[in-house]
Structures are given as C-alpha cells and as structure tokens.
Design a protein that fits this description.
The protein has 59 residues and is mainly α. It has a domain of 40 residues. It is 92% helix and 0% strand. It is built from one helix and no strands. The mean pLDDT is 95.
Length: 59
C-alpha cells in the first residue's frame, strides 16, 4: 500500500524533529565538555598561583 502525500509529509516532519533533537543533544554535550575543560584549566591555574604564593612566603 502506497503512502499518501500527507503521510509522507508527516513522516518527514517526524524524522526532521528526531534529527534536530540529536543535534541539540550533541551541541549540549560539546558545551558541557568545553565548560569542564575550562573549569579544569581554572583549577590548575589556581593551584599554580597557590604554589607561587607558598614559594614567595618561604623566601
């Protein structure tokens, strides 16, 4: 049995919605990874600052 034009349209719409959802999920994942990396860098920088402070105190 062949699909009617309306059925095909509905199917395409559903597929596009699914694809957009997938894309948004990917984007959110990328954003979270980026934020995680930035926080990690910030923590590293903070540790380095602390170490320098300690070394200055020792002198």
């Amino acid at each position: 049995m062949r699909e009617t034009k309306a059925e095909r349209k509905k199917k395409r719409k559903k597929e596009r919605k699914k694809e957009r959802k997938k894309e948004r999920k990917k984007e959110r994942k990328k954003e979270r990874q980026k934020e995680r990396r930035e926080r990690k860098k910030e923590r590293e920088n903070e540790r380095k600052r602390e170490k320098r402070k300690e070394q200055k105190k020792e002198r």
